[in-house]
Amino acid sequence: FLDSSFDTARRIVERHFDMAVGDLDSVKLSDYKSTLLEYCQKRFKVLPDIVLAGEYGPEHDKVFVMEVVMAGRIIGRGEGRNKKMAAQMASRDALQTLEEDE
To answer: Does residue 53 sit within a domain?
Structure first.
């Protein structure tokens, strides 16, 4: 933006920012795990288990695998560089599964 005026740069930033803010209106600002737990508690009156299913890779670059289990059925699976991220990805997968089942 060095080759144009401040007003031009401001308009471009505002246009992109407004689009991003508009896109956020339809997104629930919460993490996947919390959303999953709230949904299951409300809809099924039971919480799913989020369990460590495995890990692989060298010690310095380990990948964790988590699964979401409900009523003995795996409804989500996710991987991540730490257990928290893997649980988030598994929860996201579980939410998609539950959405497809409806």
So the answer is: yes
Predicted TM-score of the model (pTM): 0.71
Environment class of 20 (CB within 10 Å of its CB; exposed 0-12, middle 13-18, buried 19+): exposed
Domain count, the chain: 1
> Does residue 81 lie in a domain region?
yes
Which CATH number do you get for residue 67? 3.30.160.20
Q: Are 88 and 71 in contact (CB under 8 A)?
A: no
Render pLDDT for 52-83 as a digit per residue (tens, 0 to 9).
999 999 999 999 999 999 999 999 999 999 99
Write out the two tokens for 55: 């890990």
Q: What tens digit of pLDDT does each residue of 7-56 get?
A: 777 677 666 665 444 444 444 445 999 999 999 999 999 999 999 999 99
